[in-house]
Amino acid sequence: MNLSLNTCQxxxxxxxxxxxxxxxxxxxxxxxLDGNSLGVLPRATADRLQAVVQQEWGxxxxxxxxxxxxxxxxxxxxxxxxxxxxxxAGEVVVTDTTSVNLFKVLSMAMAMAAQDHPxxxxxxxxxxxxxxxxxMAESLCAQHGWQLxxxxxAQLAQHLTTDVGVLMLTHVNYRTGSMWxxxxxxEAAHAVGALAVxxxxxxxxxxPLNLKAAQADFAVGCGYKYxxxxxxxxxxVWAQPEHVQRAQQPLxxxxxxxxxxxxxxxxxxxxxxxxxxxxxxxxxxxxxxxxGLATFxxxxxxxxxxxxxxxxxxxxxxxxxxVQTQCAGHGLVLETPLAHDKRGSQVSFxxxxxxxxxxxxxxxxxxxxxxxxxxxxxxxxxxxxxxxTPLYVGFEDVWRAVAHLKDVLxxxxxxxxxxxxxxxxx
Length: 426
Ligand SMILES: *Cc1c(COP(=O)(O)O)cnc(C)c1O
Known about the structure:
There is one protein chain. By secondary structure, this protein is α/β, with parallel strands linked by helices. It has two domains: 154 residues, Aspartate Aminotransferase, domain 1; 229 residues, Aspartate Aminotransferase, domain 2, CATH 3.40.640. 37% of the residues lie in helices and 12% in strands. It has 13 helices and 13 strands. The strands form three sheets. The chain has a seven-stranded mixed β-sheet with strand order 2-8-7-6-5-3-4, with helices on both faces. The protein has a four-stranded antiparallel β-sheet with strand order 9-10-13-12, with helices on one face. Strand 5, helix 8 and strand 6 form a beta-alpha-beta unit. Helix 2 runs antiparallel to helix 10. The longest helix has 23 residues. The protein binds pyridoxal-5'-phosphate (PLP). The site of pyridoxal-5'-phosphate (PLP) has 13 residues, from helix 5 and helix 6. The site of pyridoxal-5'-phosphate has 13 residues, from helix 5 and helix 6.
């Protein structure tokens, strides 16, 4: 394949999803490859927030909980997310953060495991999981007298033994972009009597999901990455319907009560997923997430997630091929699987030297990727991450991003001292 600029421009012209990009406000000239960290701003969001502030809040005031459906928003948004997860009606609510929702579902899974298999008090996860997931698991294990067992991905099978009560995995790894087979590992967990808890932070809106067919037990995910809900957007939570009544969600705030406005003493959980709510939700943040979801819904007549996935794989294939041919000899090591069924919607390259500075040099050229430090104790190298959101990234963007990367490496411009200054958020 001859991947010239011209070829990439032709791929954009033939891309049936090309028009979806117009839904977003992307700064002119910017190539945004960080939608796996913070999605871009949908054009509709500012006007929508303005209306919520001026009309619903400014004029409607407290009445808007009823008249503008503020109270129902966690469920309304959950219904809109459910089809993208392969979940059914009434099975998803939008609330709180991924970390907090993980705390809720892990507590429930551990309580269920304690009832069904009291001897199985190990929570198994991947050592390279996203730190917040492991931090939350660590505290819960300490509270409940469980053991947290973190292993290398390649060793997961041999550590999934009959002492494991809960298997907790992030479906697409935040560093490498490699993807677990959800159905396979949920089944493997069940085979030893364990429950399977999935974090979909890098999956929702990025890859096709089928929680029900995969027989997952619980799932949580993020609103501000591929779902374009804005910085700090509310997260979502899903539970296998039979599990909802089985265990108590531990954060028993009034929004999860069966009758929050009866103000009765004594907690009584709501019948369905409502019990996963805790306190008042940010109405403004939920309104912005609604605009993010609308950008996905516009893809439905064009093939929805199947078409988005096809384009995402074509984008990541193109990027990998161009980097490997254009930047050969510069010490870039591909950390993302080549196999399509093992790849999410990002591509990571490690480099033993200057990975942070290379990313900074690219950002100065308006090519936005990001950097994740490796843990030398685990033999991890520093990683440059590039996310490819098929809703708004095109093939010409990919070509131009690689041309900049080649330039930065060939000219060694990344060595300039200004690119070594460490930011708080990388
Ligand atoms: C982004 C991400 C989170 C974020 O958690 P917050 O509570 O929203 O800050 C959690 N887990 C994974 C795997 C992530 O990628």
